[in-house]
Design goal:
Oligomer: heterodimer
Radius of gyration of chain B: 19 Å
Low-confidence stretches of chain A: none
Number of helices of chain B: 9
Number of domains of chain A: 2
Number of strands of chain A: 8
CATH architecture of the largest domain in chain A: 3-Layer(aba) Sandwich
Mean pLDDT of chain B: 92
Largest sheet of chain B: none
Strand order of the largest sheet of chain A: 2-1-3-4
Number of domains of chain B: 2
Structural class of chain B: mainly alpha
Structural class of chain A: alpha/beta
Low-confidence stretches of chain B: none
Strand content of chain A: 5-15%
Shape of chain B: globular
CATH topology of the largest domain in chain A: Rossmann fold
Number of strands of chain B: 0
Strand content of chain B: under 5%
CATH class of the largest domain in chain A: Alpha Beta
Largest sheet of chain A: 4 strands, parallel
Helix content of chain A: 40-55%
Distance between the termini of chain B: 38 Å
Radius of gyration of chain A: 18 Å
Order of helices and strands of chain B: HHHHHHHHH
Shape of chain A: globular
Number of helices of chain A: 12
Largest interface: A-B, 60 and 64 residues
Chain lengths: ~280, ~170
């Protein structure tokens, strides 16, 4: 069993606990042990808080990483935002000794120290590590024939140099993970563009237009479902589709269904777009 | 010719360091690749290329521009820029400056204040508690240590002042 310091992040914990539930079921099935962290805060997020104050972001992220370092385990996150934020902070502080010193001077005030001893992982990377063979063995109900609009989400794959999740200029890792369980990712334009979720507070109309633009492309490509590993994208797709909405699944939910967990035990009824009546 | 130092000019020099700042002025070819990939280009009048030009010229009108808050930090332009210009970082420095000058959008201010109050960027509601219980998940509470520590870090790094004012 491999153990990870589990950082579910605040969006999933507060608004989308059913995504946490599905993830815990899938990870348990794959013999991944989760160590619950205490005292963590928001990562801080890469869309609103980080661009407001770099120094504050770096100190807060370093504190969260330090909490996981105490457990001597790599940090596992379910969220693109948390991944982008914590992974970048980890990279910056491991690389830049001067920055690390500065941040540790600040962290002294809260009795913490960033050591640089662990890695930050997104659950997508963990699936990659576990690999197709072991995942296939757990599949009881493969998603054969499901035509999926796979949406990576910006902060899983960019900045590429830091994310290091897929070295291709045009990442396809999510397409692969979807294929592993029998589903067929459709090719659609704008698959790597922002869903507009981060804009809903500032300019709802433009944020909604960004979403519509992506949805049009998915519909044209014949997608029957949307799959994403990002809770922000999930909210945008699940809450804000208007006409002819496609069911939306978080990657771990798709895996959970394929492993034979029921929609009930994963809390799929909390989705706004209905999943059950679409034959999966 | 003497150049007048503007607020934007000063903030970019101080935050990004003179090397990066100089490279931005001299290396940006205004080729427009950034605007080409930016999802805002086809939906709004916002052009990231123009914003970088204005930033390079130290245009203080940027401080009050609502456009500053449109970027969703998707990093698409960062990946495409052939000159390696750190567009999201430049926009971030400008946002910090705008906030210092009192131009923080309400929605951003709301998230920042919630973060200071609870340690999280999203509220814990009655519905959260109900759903977590039903799913057999542990209770989600505001963590007092996290709130206290976030407050300390926010004070130390100037974030508290930025959000709540002096």
């Amino acid at each position: 069993m491999t153990n990870y310091a589990f950082y579910p992040g605040c969006l999933i914990s507060t608004r989308l606990p059913f995504l946490e539930k599905a993830s815990r079921l899938v990870l348990g099935e794959l013999d991944v042990g989760l160590k619950e962290l205490r005292g963590y805060s928001c990562c801080a997020d890469p869309i609103i808080l980080k661009p407001l104050s770099y120094d504050s972001w770096l100190a807060v992220a370093a504190r969260n990483i330090a909490i996981a370092e105490d457990e001597e385990m790599d940090l596992l996150t379910l969220c693109n935002g948390c991944f982008c934020s914590l992974n970048e902070a980890n990279h910056v502080l491991k690389k830049d000794g001067k920055k690390k010193e500065e941040v540790n001077e600040i962290l002294k005030e809260v009795d913490r120290e960033f050591k640089g001893t662990i890695d930050v992982l997104h659950v997508v990377q963990l699936m990659q590590e576990i690999g197709q063979e072991r995942i296939s063995q757990k599949m009881e109900k493969p998603a054969n024939g499901l035509r999926v609009g796979a949406h990576h989400g910006c902060h899983l794959i960019r900045p590429r140099e830091v994310a290091q999740i897929d070295d291709k200029r045009r990442p396809t890792i999510l397409d692969e993970l979807v294929r592993w369980i029998g589903a067929e990712p459709v090719e659609y334009a704008e698959d790597l563009l922002c869903c507009g979720g981060g804009l809903m507070g500032v300019d709802e109309k433009t944020g909604a237009s960004m979403l519509t633009s992506i949805l049009d492309k998915m519909h044209s490509a014949g997608a029957t479902h949307i799959v994403t590993p990002c809770p922000y994208c999930f909210v945008q797709f699940d809450y804000r589709q208007k006409e002819n909405p496609l069911p939306v699944l978080y990657l771990m939910e798709l895996y959970g269904l394929s492993m034979g967990f029921s929609p009930d035990e994963m809390g799929l009824k909390h989705h706004r777009t209905k999943t059950e009546d679409r034959g999966f | 010719m003497s150049m007048k130092t503007t607020k934007v000019d000063k903030a970019l020099r101080e935050e990004l360091g003179s090397r990066e700042f100089t490279s931005m002025l001299t290396l940006c070819e205004q080729c427009g690749v950034c605007s080409g990939i930016c999802p805002l280009s086809k939906l709004t009048d916002f052009r990231v290329r123009k914003m970088i030009l204005k930033a390079g010229l130290g245009d203080d009108n940027l401080i009050e521009s609502p456009d500053l808050w449109l970027c969703t930090m998707c990093y698409a332009c960062l990946e495409r820029c052939r000159s390696g210009i750190q567009v999201p970082e430049i926009i971030s420095v400008l946002r910090t400056l705008a906030a210092k000058e009192g131009h923080l959008p309400d929605s951003t201010s709301k998230v920042a204040k919630l973060f200071l109050k609870t340690g999280y960027a999203f509220p814990i509601s009655g519905l959260t508690a109900k759903m977590r219980k039903e799913l057999g998940l542990g209770e989600m509470k505001v963590d007092k240590t996290a709130v206290k520590d976030v407050g300390t870090l926010a004070k130390k790094t100037g974030f508290k002042k930025l959000v709540e004012g002096p």
